[in-house]
Amino acid sequence: MICIECGAKYLDGPSRYWCDRCNGLLEVVFDLEMLSADISLSWKKRPLGVWRYSELLPVRDPRTVISLGEGGTRLYHCDRLGSAIGLKRLFVKNEGDNPTGSFKDRGMTVGVSKAIELGMKYTICASTGNTSASLAAYSAKAGLKCVVLIPEGKIALGKIAQAIAYGARIVAIKGGFDDTMRLVKDICAVHPSVYLLNSINPHRLEGQKTIAFELVDQLKAVPDYVVVPVGNAGNISAIWKGFKELYNLGMIDELPKMVGIQAEGAAPLVKAFKKGWKRVEPVVDPKTKASAIRIGHPVNWKKALRAVKESKGLFESVSDEEILRAQWALASHEGIFIEPASAASIAGVIKLRDLGLLDGDELMVCIATGNGLKDPKYVLDNYEVRIVRISAELHKLREYLMELELSGNLKI
Ligand code: AN7
Description:
Elements (H helix, E strand, L loop, with lengths): L1 E2 L22 E2 L11 H6 L30 E3 L1 H7 L3 E6 L9 H14 L4 E5 L3 H13 L2 E7 L5 H9 L3 E5 L3 H14 L3 E3 L5 H7 L1 H10 L5 E5 L4 H15 L8 E7 L4 H8 L25 H10 L3 E5 L1 H15 L5 H15 L8 E6 L7 H7 L11 H13 L6
Parallel strand pairs: 4-12, 5-6, 5-8, 6-7, 9-10, 9-12, 10-11
Antiparallel strand pairs: 1-2, 3-4
Helix pairs in contact: 3-4, 3-7, 4-5, 7-9, 8-9, 9-11, 12-13
């Protein structure tokens, strides 16, 4: 591992989450020249999924791998939504297909395998919901005790239900996500047998970079833009790292522009990017209905700013209203139901088009990070619910269908 701040190098070994010298973020580096000439031939023989790319994952012994069959998620060409918003090549990668319903599983299969390799007894994370669900599931499969810290009352229903069912010890903290994150970092600094599995853990990000590998395998091309909802900013950093590795291996000869989308009330990276700051100023009381990305102090901000700058991409924010409309637009045009935070990526694409930054021919990929079923209450609370009540009589139903006929097509 290498420190992205001071360049200090660390051999693979005991758990370490930040640089001993300067507290900077760490990154896993592979000696790409040591890899066999054509690893892509081996990859082609394996099914699409995280472990297809095992040569580029930091787990030494395949026998310690804890897997629930993560990755290999569907990539949809959204032609109906695309034509409604003037984009010919709009694709959505549905990470809600993963075993616990979010992209976090890609990181957890690697991170929890690492916990086993290192002989850890406990796993721990702070979470806005999906991380806790995913860590709880992988810890269950690994036989490790799992503790999750959540901001009290701020987690979507489906996610808390998952964490309970998978048997995690759940600690609710009065405060926001950033308070839970601080506590988790502090406890792991003094407790070496507790393994921290937030995205500050560089091994987790290695699993998440496989989103980039799969995209290239599925599209047989490099997207022009990859649009990612941003909270702690781990995923956008990981995906960019994946593309760069393929580029450095000579497997692709172009790179995408990375676009990070934050919710307006929780957008410290957007602000820093637009003002050209070198640092991110935390948002003290972040606000958005997209609870997964209600994060004011993203731990990976430095990696994410670097990813967006290197790729010549951008950060943009979207309002809660835009997120709601985007979720509805994708579900009602494409049959893909994604959670509000994920819909920020769709809202972001619509905003880029409105800002006149797109000409309509670009190959655009939105990363739909989590399944819509994670947060059913959001739909019931925010949609105009269209349910008619009739008595159980045939003529009533026929009357209703007649009315529908007269009113023309169902409005979407
Ligand atoms: C659906 O679960 O931070 O920018 O604790 O659940 O890599 O943090 C969730 C984040 C986007 C943001 N979409 O990813 C957590 C947590 C969904 C998410 C993000 C999250 P990062």
